[in-house]
Specification:
This protein is α+β, with helices and mostly antiparallel strands and about 250 residues long. The chain has helices at about 70-85, 110-140, 160-170, 175, 225-230, and strands spanning about 55-60, 90-100, 100-110, 155. The chain starts with about 55 loop residues before the first strand and ends in a 21-residue tail after the last helix.
Length: about 250
Amino acid sequence: MARRRRHIQQSFIYGDKNGQRRGVDRHHRPGRPKPKGMRPSERHKVRPHLLGREPIHVTMRVTDAVGKLRRRNVYLAIRRAMVTAFHRTNFRIVHASIQNSHLHLLVEADDRMALARGMQGFQISAAKHINAAISKERGIERRRGRVFVDRYHAIAIGSRRGVWNRLVYVLNNWRHHREDRFDNTRGYAVDPFSTGPSFAGWNRRVEVDWPATYEPLPVWEPKTWLLREGWKVYGLLDPEAVPGGKDVD
């Protein structure tokens, strides 16, 4: 004869007046990972459908433990990751800007999956090289900590004006953060931590006496009409323009 299972009374969990369970983070939904850090970069949701003809503005933030990105060893680490991503043809990094706590990229991708796979590969490679650079700098065996905060933010740009605004914002972002006033970059016409030195769309000739050891960031020539020609209807870019606001439309 089978033994009867003994019923055990479950304890009650009392909620507050709004129905929220006590001791539970009201901003965390069950079944989803908690945001990493105080400022998650992007909500966890399905990426929107992308058209291959639309450039994409991507923002990637790093953790505080990484430190400032605008230093030579980290610059070279990010450059190596961009070289690694260069073999992809359905995902192309066309412009980049390295700020102290985040990266700005203008990329082209054939579709949503090409963007996801391309960004995944770039982030993994960048994290690997940045950790190696930090380990060497700090004299430790091997740093394996997190580099990027949560997900990247991506927005497709479907208009000529929008692309023009994003180009100004990305390439001149150092002026927005007043990085052009620091000793290591003061006097340069364009940001050495960006693709500005190789950009052919400035409204005047940019001549800079770069150090012999300077290695520009490797990028693709734009293939989308908007990023190649369309934005020029609003005029070439002023290298001294200061982007305003937190983001642009």
